[in-house]
From TrEMBL:
Keywords: Hydrolase. The lineage of its organism: Bacteria, Pseudomonadati, Pseudomonadota, Alphaproteobacteria, Acetobacterales. It comes from Roseicella aquatilis. InterPro entries: HotDog_dom_sf, PAAI_dom, Thioestr_dom. Pfam families: 4HBT (PF03061). One of its GO terms (molecular function) is acyl-CoA hydrolase activity. This is PaaI family thioesterase. Residues 49-117 form the Thioesterase domain. Signal peptide: none annotated.
Amino acid sequence: MQVPPGFIEMPGHDPGIYNSLLGPFWARAEGEGVAIGFRVERRHCNPAGQCHGGMLAGFADIVLTGGCNHVARLSRFLVTVSLTQDFLAPAALGAWVEARPEVLTVTRSTLFGQCLVAANGVPVLRASGSFRFGGEPDPRFDRLRRLLEGA
C-alpha cells in the first residue's frame, strides 16, 4: 500500500479495540500541525464499493481526538461529547484519504475542533466536535508527538 511522501505509520493500539480495527493510519508533521491519512481498502467499503460513511466518521473522530490533542499539546485522553459530520462526496476504493485537525478553542475541560477530510484531494467530509478531558495528562496519549519527533 503506497502512501504519500513523509507519512509515517502510526503505532497500532492494543489488538481488539476499535481503533486497531480501522487502521492502519499514517501521520505527517506539518509545522505545528499534523496530517493524518489512510488508504481506502475493500474492508472499509459499503456494498456500492465506496468508503463507508461510518469509516469516514470514525476516521474524523480519530483525527479530531488524537490530532487535536497533538496540536493543542494536551497529552490527555479526549472523550467525544459531540461530533457533527457533513458528507460531501464519496471516497472510492483505493483513494488516499487525509485530514488536518484544527483546534478552535480549549477551555478548562473541553476542546473544540474541526477538520476537512479529503479523498485524493477532493473534500468528502466536514466534521466538528467537542471533546472533554478524560483525566489528567498522561504520556499514553502523547504517542503522536513522540512518533513525529522521532522521525
